[in-house]
Write a structure and sequence with these properties.
Length: 318
């Protein structure tokens, strides 16, 4: 802290804190609109300029406080690396809230003390979730709402900066509103991470037609995320362009466990223009054109078998 900063009155420091956090949220919003939801770590570490001083959003440690602030600005869960455990096993609790691990095992570590003070003052933070090395998705504002020294964890809840007349749930008192918003945020973060991992495994191409325009690609679930086993893991995903994703979801096309594509019989018999012929009918009895190189990323044959049984169900037959 500079001599000038030491002379700032507490109320002035609180005002600086609020302005810097608001500027950080605004910057993160602009960055997300420009780059998409998967943000490069380099951009987050570079941050933005505020009153002539650089304000990074992320640092080398999970609990990060830039020099301009007295309390942490962000918390980070690093991405999983295959074959290597995460240094901190942050997890989602049964109530839907994030359990964020202390730094180390000393509850009095200054980083843990910083989050504890952020909880006392209910200071808004940014949460970064690593989806793969060098890429993160974010949620803000999040609040520390619980402290459990026995399990070395803080409870983190996501909130919405604005209430919405269109969504009465956002007008609830803090606890139920944050439970609702946190549940939605968890779903969104997991889906963004799922899409990123699946598209990377399929090398940015549609598995059925090899289209490489990322904006037109989706991560399709083999087993729906609402079904048992429908986890957002790469082996439960296929990278598909939007037309083949829709055809797969509506069981117009199916994929056998041996990765051969089948087209529904009534669709094969239709007579229409070149889009139907080249886009769908020509897929019949062809193998997937793109599959992941890593065996652990390839479609789970049991998942494919369950999904193919649905494709063959009588209500989808000609």
């Amino acid at each position: 802290m500079t001599p000038h900063e030491r002379t700032i009155r507490p109320m002035d420091r609180e005002s600086v804190d609020q302005r810097v956090r608001a500027a950080a949220f605004e910057f993160l919003g602009r960055l997300t609109r420009r780059l998409g939801e998967a943000l490069p770590a380099g951009q987050l570490r570079q941050g933005f300029m505020y009153d002539g001083q650089r304000v990074p959003l992320m640092g080398p440690q999970g609990i990060f406080k830039p020099a301009v602030l007295d309390l942490p600005l962000s918390i980070t869960t690093v991405p999983a690396v295959p074959g290597r455990p995460r240094p901190y096993s942050d997890e989602i609790a049964n109530n839907g809230f994030l359990l964020y691990r202390y730094r180390g095992t000393d509850p009095s570590h200054r980083d843990n003390q910083g989050l504890r003070e952020a909880m006392r003052r209910q200071v808004p933070l940014i949460y970064f979730l690593g989806i793969e090395p060098g890429l993160y998705v974010s949620e803000w504002p999040v609040f520390i709402t619980g402290d459990d020294p026995g399990h070395l964890t803080f409870t983190v809840q996501v909130d919405d900066p604005l209430t919405s007349d269109a969504d009465p749930a956002l007008e609830l008192p803090d606890e139920p509103r944050r439970a609702y918003v946190t549940r939605l945020a968890k779903q969104r973060l997991h889906q963004v991470a799922f899409r990123q991992r699946v598209l990377r495994a399929y090398r940015g191409s549609c598995a059925m037609c090899q289209l490489r325009h990322t904006d037109l690609l989706d991560a399709a679930h083999i087993l729906p995320d609402s079904s048992p086993g429908g986890e957002p893991v790469t082996s439960n995903g296929l990278a598909l362009c939007k037309i083949h994703h829709a055809a797969f979801d509506h069981n117009i096309v199916g994929v056998r466990p041996d990765l051969v594509i089948q087209v529904r019989h009534d669709v094969l018999d239709e007579v229409d223009g070149p889009m139907l012929r080249h886009g769908l009918q020509d897929l019949h009895d062809r193998p997937l054109l793109v599959v992941p190189r890593r065996p652990t990323d390839r479609p789970n044959t049991e998942f494919l078998s369950q999904r193919y049984q649905l494709f063959q169900a009588p209500r989808y037959a000609a």
